[in-house]
Amino acid sequence: MISEKLKNIREVRLSPLDYLPQENLREKMVDLVLRGVPKEAPGQARHLLSDLREELVRKSVSEVKVVVFGGGTGLSNLIGGDSRLESWIQNPFCGLKKYFPHSKSIVCVTDDGGSTGELLKDLPLVALGDIRHVLLSSLRLRTLQTQFDVTTEQAQQIATICHILFNYRCSGSLQSDHPELDMILQKLGLLPQPLNNFLRELIEYLFADIRLKETLNRPHCLGNLLVAAAVYREVPPNLSNHELAAQQDVLHGALLRGLNTLSSILGAGERAVLPCTSTPAQLRVLYTNGVEIIGENKLSDAQRGFPVESVQVDYFNKVHVLDEVLEDIRQADILIFAPGSLYSSIIPVFKVPGLAETVRANKKALKMLISNLWVQAGETDLSIADPERKFHVSDMIKAYENNIPGGTQDLFNEVLCVSLKNIPASILQKYAVEGKIPIFLDRDVLCKLNYIPIESGVYSQQALADRGVIHHDPDTLAKAIKTLYNGRYCFDDKYEKHKNYQANYKIDINRSELIKILPFQRYRFITDWLNDLEFVHVGDGKCIDIDSAKTIFKKIFWDHPTIPLTHFQYVAGISFIEEEKWDRDQRWDNVFSFFDPDDRFIKIRSDQFPVREKIEVALMIAFGESLLGNYAKEKVMEDVVINDFLMGKVYHLYLQQGDIRACFFTADQLSTFLLLTRMVPTDDKNHYIRLVNRGEGFTPPGLLMGLMYAWYLDNRLATHIEYKMSLMKINKTNLIPEQLKMSDRRKKMVTFFRNTVFGESRNT
Description:
The chain is of the alpha/beta class. Among the domains are: 2-58, no CATH class; 65-280 and 316-486, 3-Layer(aba) Sandwich (Rossmann fold). It has 30 helices and 20 strands. It has a 7-stranded parallel β-sheet, with helices on both faces. A hairpin with a 4-residue loop joins strand 15 and strand 16. Helix 2 (25-35) packs across helix 23 (474-486), helix 4 (73-80) runs parallel beside helix 7 (129-137) and helix 24 (519-532) runs antiparallel to helix 25 (546-558). The radius of gyration is 30 Å and the shape is globular.
């Protein structure tokens, strides 16, 4: 019917489609559905366009199977609105699920921040936060009405109570008699009896299962705890968390059963939300300056000043993919890549072995990428193609091309982008002042790459009018997707097109290696290590509270998952030294910490403690220095005098004999580091020298090791080194050979830290 009506329109000499100003037929159809027939269209054209629009809208997609891939916010908003927002309860049954009741979500599981990160400290599970977020957004009106025999108003009340329950934030320890929790439990009485009973049982289980007890002492989103409880209900009660860590097959089945039970009873439907893998995993990000960090949370917080080059996913065990996930992909009529964080949403999903191949094998499905709207700090604020400009849509696709195994061939063909043409310049200017810049659609580049750009006003007109904000509108997106699906046979192009460039995906030689230590096991290791340390206060003032110090240090080390556990073996204790007892010479630096190889203590000036930023810098610099251990037998600074004139100084470094040296590095690795610090070897393999010109400063190898260590973990911790490393941003030129040498040394130093210092963090 749609094809016949389109044929009738085209038979008119001046096609009514000409009254739709968009560039291609897809855009014209979407605009026709979203905005209606143009007022300036004459009678006959208006009638024909109205007829076409009615058919596009009328044709049902209730049996169409949809699978959406993504992370938390973008995926949940597309499925049914962002369920974390207070405004969600005003319209909880919107979005893709409203038009496509057979929609399923495949969720990324590499998140390690917020409440999810707190759960990872105690439980051997995948990240649950995004799953909880998408699950709440997936509640369906029709399912609730059928399942509980309720009216639309009653279904609305169910969604409201679930929103309160699943988004409740516990600021501290969760107690069964907490007044706020008691208020929430009272609201559960308004739910249908089966749902009321199930949720109460789930909450009771939280306090009954000893394996969940420790995590109840942390700040959490209650919804994450309920998801964890739903999974643990399916696990044999006699297995401890450490035993479960060694028996991932048990958790693999429990995760599916627990999520399905929770999803079904909440009215989202069976298998509405599933993880891309049931194996715990973490993100590993490599920047173009050679620095590699671990953790999705570190990526979002990073201000590296360099674009992301590639991302990898490290798995903590054999990678499990639920058979149900693969089957849903095979059966799908529409496959959608949801908007979201570029490097921590879609890409980690398709690092999971088998997912990309299964999508490619589905030749019948409409495959679509929904582009992000705004540049995101740390991920899309810099382009590899040209770091001086902001991200384009083609940059996003090339990032997928270079990071997804096999590239984007047959993963998606159409790219749906937000059109900002009708948005007032004043609104965009306000966003620019806040540092939010749209991702630019470079249509010509996409077309040359044989992608089909579809630019449309799929943002919320209501939010723009009421609050002056721009974001994807769930219903508008769903209508656009429905239009593109219903009109798919009318378009003149073919889906199976070969891209004009080959995938540049880099095979990671460590990809098959498995991480041995789960996050909760790492957290326990850090806790035990700190408890075994000796803490000392030097001075007559008020002593620093040791328990508070341990809590802060524990958080600092947890926040740096790049640190391998093998780095913790060189420190015996920590001393806090009051300023009047501090005898370090600070003429050349403002570093108020050091590692003392004589007693193996990290020593920190006590006035650094009250401020998190200061104590973190001090701790990380000294901790980095500890890797050198007792490498130095003697350090001597001699004057260089010629004709009674002081020319400078010579720094002599005499290494400890190898048989009594306690150091993280082998002899060859230590030699490599010293050469990178511009120390010069002598005929004696244990003797290095460095000439320092008169009036110049000098950073000795030990301090440089500490500064580089802190900088590598987070460049904001060592601004002195950040200043030196900024040389790598300068465009290369042959006019200044010394500049090239300096840049080359910087790159080699970064490589040394990535491969030698932190290389073990991939599998320890």
